[in-house]
Structures are given as C-alpha cells and as structure tokens.
Fold this sequence. Notes:
By secondary structure, chain A is α/β, with parallel strands linked by helices.
Amino acid sequence: MKHVTIKDIARHLSISVSTVSRALVNDKNVRKETKEKVLNAARELNYKPNPVATNLKYGHSNTVGVIVPEMVTPFASTVVSGIQSVLYAHGIKVIVADSRENPDMERENLRLMEQFMVDGIIVSLCSYRKNREDYLRLQKAGMPMVFYDRIPYGLDVPQVLVDDYRKSFFLVEKLILGGRKKIVHIQGPEDIYNSKERLKGYMDAMAKYKIPVNESTMVIRTGMTFDEGAEAAERLVGSGMDFDAIFAFTDTLAIGVMNRLRELGKRIPDEVAIASFSGTELSTIVYPKLTTVEPPLFQMGEKAAELILEKIKNPACPNRKETVNAEIRMRESSGIRD
Amino acid sequence: MKHVTIKDIARHLSISVSTVSRALVNDKNVRKETKEKVLNAARELNYKPNPVATNLKYGHSNTVGVIVPEMVTPFASTVVSGIQSVLYAHGIKVIVADSRENPDMERENLRLMEQFMVDGIIVSLCSYRKNREDYLRLQKAGMPMVFYDRIPYGLDVPQVLVDDYRKSFFLVEKLILGGRKKIVHIQGPEDIYNSKERLKGYMDAMAKYKIPVNESTMVIRTGMTFDEGAEAAERLVGSGMDFDAIFAFTDTLAIGVMNRLRELGKRIPDEVAIASFSGTELSTIVYPKLTTVEPPLFQMGEKAAELILEKIKNPACPNRKETVNAEIRMRESSGIRD
DNA sequence: GCAGGTTCCGGGAACGTTCCCGCAATCGTT
DNA sequence: AACGATTGCGGGAACGTTCCCGGAACCTGC
Lengths: 338, 338
C-alpha cells in the first residue's frame, strides 16, 4: 500500500521537507501559520509518520518484545496485560511472540526480536538452561532484558519472580495440618527452575513434619498440559499406591489430575485433596474449585515493565530482582478452610 | 545496543559496501573468493542484517499483524498457532496485539500495525460495527486484510468463518429432540455479528418444533465473561422462570452459567442441560464436560494465513470467503448422547 | 544606517540497505 | 591481434525521517 510521506506534503505546499518535518515535531523555528498549513495538509492527505524511517534514524523502535512460553492458559495473557498497561502509557508498543514450550522456537523468537530492533525484551523461559549463550550474548551487546516467572539459573539479570520455595512450603504445610499425610507431588518439567524450588518447598515441609518421602514414587515428573496431568493420575492410581493429597506444579496439571481422578472414582477432596501452584482463572471454573498459590500476574507484568523501562533508560543500571507476593487461595479442592 | 553493519564489514575488508551487499544476497556478480571472505567476516563480526533498513528500502516488513479481541481463553491462541504455522513457513513473522474487548483499543492496535508497516492484518473484531471507517480506509489504501470468526457486517473482505446459523440450529434441535422444551438462550453482546446469527439459529430451531419463544424472557443479552454468565444464571433463577436447558453464545458464558446454576442447587444435566457455541479446551476441563459447537480453531488460523498470503501476493485478487466446518461435540453437560 | 541578534526556512547529510550505472579487467571469438 | 562480451567491483542514489548548518529576511539598539 502507498503511504503519504512528508515529501508529498512538502510538494503539495511547495515548501521544503525540512520545514514540514519541523512543523510536525513542533519545532519552535516555524511560523505558526506555516505550522498550521502543514498540519492541515497532513490531516487532509491523511499523513501517517513512517516509524520505520525514524527507527532507522534513531536506532530504536519504541517497541518492547515479550516472549512467552505458552499462550493456552490465561497466565501469559494476564502478565502481558500488566506489561501493556504501563508500557502503553509511555508510548511504547508491545509485541508478543509465543514459544510453545519449545526452546528452539524461543530462540527463533529471540532472533526475531533482535532483528526487529526492539528496545528491550521481556522473557519467560521454556527451559532454564537452554539458549544461555544467546541471552549472554544479547546481554553483553547491551540489549535490555527482563525475565519473569520462569527465569534462568545463575544469570545476573533483572527479574521478577514469585517466592516459589516458601509458598510451596506453606501450602504443603497447610495440607499436612489439614490432616493429609500421603501427599504426592506432581513436579512438572525438570528443566524449569521453578519446578526445583517448588519441589524443595514440598520436601522441606514434609521433612518438618517427619513424613518420609520416597522420591521415586511420591514425586512424579511430567509435562505441563492437562493431558499429562491426567496421565499422571492414571499412572498413580494404576500403581496402587496409597495417597490422600496431590500438590501439583501448575493449575493446568492439577486440573488434569483432578478430573481424571474423579473419573476414576476418587472423591475430591474427601479421598484426595488437590492443591497447586500457579493459579489462574482456570482454578475457579473447575469443580471443585482449586486450592492454589496465586501469583499477582497483572502486577508481575507491571513490575517487569518497570524494570525494562529502567534498563532502557540506563542500560548500566544494576540488575534488580523483584519478588512479588503470591496469595494462597484455599478453595474446595483441598477440603481445608483458611 | 550497537549493531554490526554492512559498512563495518566493508571497512574491515577494505572493499566497497556494494560488494558486501552483493555477496550477502548471493548476487552472481561477485567472485567466489570475495564472497567467501565476506561471509567469513560476517560470521566473525557476528553481523545481523538490519531488517528495518530493508523494510524502509522495500516498503514492507515481512510481518503480519494479528489483532485479537481477547487472549484469556485459548480461542485466540489456538487460531494464532495456526496462523504462525503457515506464515513462519513462508518466512513471515507474526506479531499479536490484544484489544481486550475494547473497540478503542482495537483502533489503537490497528494504527500500531499500520505504522509498523506490516504486510497484512488478520483481525477478529470486538464489535461488528465499530471502526468501520478505519477498515474501509485501510482497504481502500490497499492494505491486505483478513477477518476471522468475529467478522464485520456487510463489508466485502476476505474472511474465514464458522457456519453460526446452521450449527446453532442443529445444536438446539438436538436439545429439543433430547426432550428439552424450555430452552433459554444466553445471547452475548449484541454488537457481535455472530451473536445475531446464533440467535437466529436458536429461534428457527424452536420455531420448527413449534415451541413459542418469548424473546424478552428466554433470550438474555449479556457480555462475554465467566462472571457475566454467572450473573445471568442468578437473574434467571431469581426470576422464577421455568427452564430445562441453556444454549449459550460461548463456552466462557456457558461455564459461568453452569457453575453458578450448580451452586444454586440445580442438577446438571438432569434439571438443566447446558450447551454452547465456540467450544475450546475449557469445555473439557469443567464438570460436567460441556456440550459445544467446536470450531476447528487451528485450521481457521491456517485458512486466514492462506488468505492473507493471497492478498499480499496479489492485492487485487477477489475477496474469498472460507467457511470452516465446526463439529458438534455432545458431552455430559447436555445429558444427550450423539 | 549599520552591527548584531532573531526568526524562519532550504539544502544536504545521515541511519543501513539495495540496486542501477559505469568502468576496468579479463575473456572468448574470429 | 583486435574487438565486443562478460565478469567483478566501486560510486552513488534512493527509501522516509531528523537535524545540523547556513543563509535570507527582519527586528533591535545605538
């Protein structure tokens, strides 16, 4: 499609390109009448500045890229809303790319953002150890970057995270104090750093109450989807093991587990209590409603946006680490009141 | 961050910028040795072409923008996956912007895409009659555009849609044949065109079986969220009206209605059968599982991508209208077997 | 009435590419 | 051996902006 340019306006008014430019950016060195003429002509010709040209000129794009590991749950979209709300207010556009839990696609997305000359990148990782070299290279090259939720391990980068360990500990403790002893942990993928932390919280809570944990039977490693949760539930029941509670890595997994357990005849929460980390709106639409640790997703987005703004303004500023406070929501699935 | 440019390579090898450019785009007019030298230097200096410059040069960005009305359900994300799968294969990048059911934000997103010089825009509307002038203007200016699912009314544009009317008709007919007579329709927002079509399907199915419909009590207009569905359920029960089935505009609404009805003591599906249009993965994680009309979302994305590719290649090509075949999934919430 | 300062505007370079044009060197043909 | 054709390369314009620089016109103050 044909764009109206500053040149067209200049030609139309038979004045110079420079003057038009000045009029449009509100430079003082233009007569008010000239400015008005230009503004009118711009409106009349339906002129839209071409940001590509100014990007080229200035070397930045007024855009921040967000790379999310998945978009099927409301998790990412809520965080992105938070990001947009603060960045839009600063006149910065937001583009989103989805890695679909695939580190190679994440890498592709990263290159896409780089080539797009975004001013900064906000990332939630697929795997805490893949693509390290790329992130290191980008960081070294001075690209502002912020990580949230699914963060890398041992990299000095700005990040906003939940207190995975403590909140897992407390939630498992609540299950124990509610009378559950045979608590199984659905760990989720091992190459997500948070999964290690949440496991640790589970282990330590169990240890505090001197409940022995056989890691090979009571901790189940799996993926991130409903189906994988359901499958874990089947394996669990199939193994004949005795259990009275589940603590899952995410609500997606927990929902998969819970629904399949019910189909297999388990009464929730009477026979099996269900609880999970990473609660989203999904936790409230299932039956029974899910007890979860609910991170303030919108706020996480806001914080991430603030951190990236800092980095953009001053790339040399120290890498801050923000921890947000996740709420423990006791709902029907655990059979425990607050 | 500092980018390595073609000039840096030229300087480094003390050859001309033109030669470097030719070597990089595989022009024949370069000696193989020279080409290799350039390629090596490019690798060594970690050169990345700056697409902003080529965009400016060629007037396009190799990017397609997708504007979605919401991102909290898996609806949009699944369609976007389909879009990405075909566009990525053509070397076209995809950026996503979320309108959050707000026509003003949609308008903003539209301008963002325009200013980004995307090669085409794929849109699902917030309102079927808002922002018409903008879409018309863009179309007149030659911007390739494709609409899906939530399409505009009476605009000759490429679009991919579901057969709202017929599938609604069939689903309601199934409810009737299953023995339900007092079927309430939760219509959803009136300014979504599909909502008119689905209402018509409902009305005609009821008419076919000579069931009188009092539109003012049996058709409820509301929004799109879980909460609005729940609220509708409350109003319904509060009104004391007798009903034995619900046909809702989307699964989101249906889920809101169903869960609240259960909380209010209604047995699903015995006392009230629930069915809805626009089924996503959410329909299968609730209890009982939801009977829905399930559009092939991924395929819708693929079709939309193909249509936009056509339009990009030849902006003058006729505006095709693709109808995809939505499946009716009978699940527990309706108490009716297929 | 003239030096100096404003005000307003046009010319042109620059951002990183691509590509057309032209020139030199080499090649192939007779 | 001499000529046109081909190959390989550099110069420079162009994409749409911004911005520096310089210059013309005007005003100010003595």
